[in-house]
Amino acid sequence: MLPWSLPDLTTFIRFEGLGPEGVGWDVGSLAAALACAHAAYAEQLSRVLGPALAADAPVHLVGGGARNTLLAQMTASACGRQVVVGATEASALGNLLSQLEATGAIAPGQRAQVVARTVRPHTVEPADPEALNLMQERLLDAVG
């Protein structure tokens, strides 16, 4: 569990003077905060799994967040890993695949083939994480 929540982050961002106010800044700040959260979770997962998690394993971004190219780029940079952006409707797709399998329309084990034919993922490479590293440090200092 991370030591902050999104309401805490928005309050922190506004009152700590991390940048100008306005909708654009708020959206960018929240994307950066989510990217920092993704990086924290990736770090925790790496500590738990140890060598079982390859150092170059990508982060998979699906669901509504997959629509946000800024979030994908910031996540890649914050994590220092590639981000594979997949299905924006991942829950609906999983539900549909379960129903197709339950009715016999597809055989067990064919889900990956169906997904590969219907979802066109793309990869985002990490960029310079310096600004995100600074934000993550300030967030951790403020809550910890």
UniProtKB/TrEMBL annotation:
Pfam families in the cross-refs: FGGY_C
MF term (GO), any: kinase activity
Transmembrane residue ranges: none
Record domain Carbohydrate kinase FGGY C-terminal: where: 26-99
Gene Ontology biological-process annotations: carbohydrate metabolic process
Protein name, per record: Carbohydrate kinase FGGY C-terminal domain-containing protein
InterPro entries: ATPase_NBD (IPR043129), FGGY_C (IPR018485)
Gene3D superfamilies reported for this sequence: 3.30.420.40
